[in-house]
Structures are given as structure tokens and as C-alpha cells.
From TrEMBL:
<dbReference type="InterPro" id="IPR010982">
    <property type="entry name" value="Lambda_DNA-bd_dom_sf"/>
</dbReference>
<dbReference type="Pfam" id="PF13443">
    <property type="entry name" value="HTH_26"/>
</dbReference>
<feature type="domain" description="HTH cro/C1-type">
    <location>
        <begin position="11"/>
        <end position="64"/>
    </location>
</feature>
<protein>
    <submittedName>
        <fullName>XRE family transcriptional regulator</fullName>
    </submittedName>
</protein>
<dbReference type="InterPro" id="IPR001387">
    <property type="entry name" value="Cro/C1-type_HTH"/>
</dbReference>
<dbReference type="GO" id="GO:0003677">
    <property type="term" value="F:DNA binding"/>
</dbReference>
């Protein structure tokens, strides 16, 4: 079966949104990478194969068709208003987190105190905000890229600094899945640029692992938060000992 160019482009957008390569898709379909590339370049695949690809992407054919008709590029960043709405309603932020991580309604209700009406209301709110598209069966399709970023000094970043940072560091990092590295030293500007680049690579690897594990059940995954940061900084407690630079 020869697929329309729009359907193939929609499949490619879904792959990019989940940071999946042809090689990743080939491994999940138990095909060679060359075979997958050939399918996409020739737009030739059976309905059964198309359904298998949709299963890997955790989407339905209706969802794929809607994306093909729309041709929308996934958002790399939310608007100020969208972020503020999430900050104003923590349950809405949780609903987005669960939707982005492909939790099904049954899993949500097994782990959280949302009844059918409450969960539906949250998904409808996210849909009206333009952050997800509400699909049949209370499935939420994210309209964001899988690795979208919060706005620099936007509502979510400010909320994290003022309200969540203390909570994040309140408990010791002594569990099997915990790690906390406190590193400090003096680097050249070139060294700082190199370190900043490496932190970006770690962030991209984190995104790739999220995409890889998205197909696992909720019971097989653990919620993880990663804070990567660097800046020229001296502890406040050292400031009284600093020699004034004025003069």
C-alpha cells in the first residue's frame, strides 16, 4: 500500500516528537534500519505494518490521520499564558506530566485520586489551552515536542525557583536511584563553554531515554527529575570576606 505524502510526513513528525530514529523504530519492529528507510522513502507499507508503527508511537490511526490533515509542527516552547495556567493549577501540571509520559487513564486512577469527571476536566482544560489534543477514549495527544523546554525566566522557572527548589533539595540524596554532585572550581571561558555544551548533551540523552521508555507501563517506570545548571557564583556566606572591587 502506497501511503500519501501527508501520512508519511505525519509519521516522521511523531518520530521526531518522541526523539525516535529510524534505527530505534527498526529495532522495535525487528526489521533492519535499511528496510525501514526504504518503507518511508517509497511510502510503501501494509496496513498491518502501519498499525505496528502506530503501536510503537502509542497513537491510533485516527490520530495519525488527524495529524496528517493538520500538518502541525510540535511546539518547542509553551506560551507565557500556558505556563501560568499550569502554575496556577498544580493538578493541571500533574495531568500534563502524566500525559507527556503516556499514562493511560486506568494507571492514573490507580495511582492518583482523580475520578473520571476530574480527569476528564483536566484533559479538557489542557486541550482548550492548546497544549494537548483530547482524543477518543480520554487519550491526550501532546502538541508539544517531547523535549520541549520551559521559558527562560518564565512562570514555570520562577515558580520552581521560589516554591519547588527547597522541596527538591529538602531530603538527602542517599537512595539507590539518587545522585547529587556539588562541584565548584575555576574555569576559563572556553572551559565554561565546553561544560555548557556537555550539559546540553546530557539533557538530550535524558530526552532520548524518556522516549525509549515511553512504551513501558506506568508500573515499570519511576518519575525522575534532573536539574542541570551552571553559573558564575560564590556562596553568600563567603561575601563578607570578599575584597571590594570598587575603586
Amino acid at each position: 500500500m502506497a501511503l500519501s505524502l501527508e501520512l508519511v510526513d505525519a509519521l516522521k513528525r511523531f518520530l521526531r516528537a518522541q526523539d525516535l530514529t529510524y534505527r530505534d523504530l527498526a529495532a522495535r519492529l525487528k526489521l533492519s534500519e535499511a528496510a525501514v528507510k526504504r518503507m518511508f522513502s517509497k511510502r510503501a507499507m501494509s496496513l498491518e505494518r502501519l498499525e505496528q508503527i502506530c503501536d510503537v508511537l502509542d497513537i491510533g490511526l485516527v490520530e495519525l490521520s488527524a495529524e496528517a490533515a493538520r500538518g502541525r509542527t510540535a511546539m518547542a516552547e509553551l506560551s507565557e499564558a500556558q505556563e501560568q495556567a499550569l502554575v496556577d493549577e498544580p493538578a493541571l501540571l500533574l495531568a500534563l506530566f502524566l500525559t507527556l509520559n503516556r499514562w493511560k487513564q486506568a494507571d492514573v486512577q490507580e495511582h492518583f485520586l482523580f475520578d473520571d469527571a476530574q480527569w476528564t476536566r483536566l484533559l479538557v482544560r489542557l486541550d482548550r489551552l492548546g497544549i494537548i489534543e483530547l482524543m477518543p477514549g480520554n487519550r491526550g495527544r501532546p502538541l508539544t515536542a517531547r523535549n520541549f523546554r520551559w521559558r527562560a525566566d518564565g512562570p514555570m522557572e520562577r515558580y520552581f525557583r521560589l516554591n519547588l527548589l527547597g522541596d527538591y533539595f529538602a531530603d538527602p540524596f542517599d537512595g539507590e536511584q539518587d545522585v547529587l554532585l556539588l562541584l565548584s572550581g575555576s574555569l576559563s571561558p572556553a572551559g565554561i563553554r565546553q561544560l555548557k555544551q556537555r550539559l546540553g548533551e546530557v539533557a538530550r540523552e535524558f530526552d532520548a531515554l524518556l522516549a525509549r521508555d515511553a512504551a513501558l507501563s506506568a508500573q515499570q517506570r519511576v518519575g525522575v527529575s534532573l536539574v542541570l545548571a551552571q553559573k558564575p557564583w560564590l556562596l553568600q556566606l563567603f561575601h563578607p570576606y570578599r575584597r571590594s572591587q570598587a575603586g
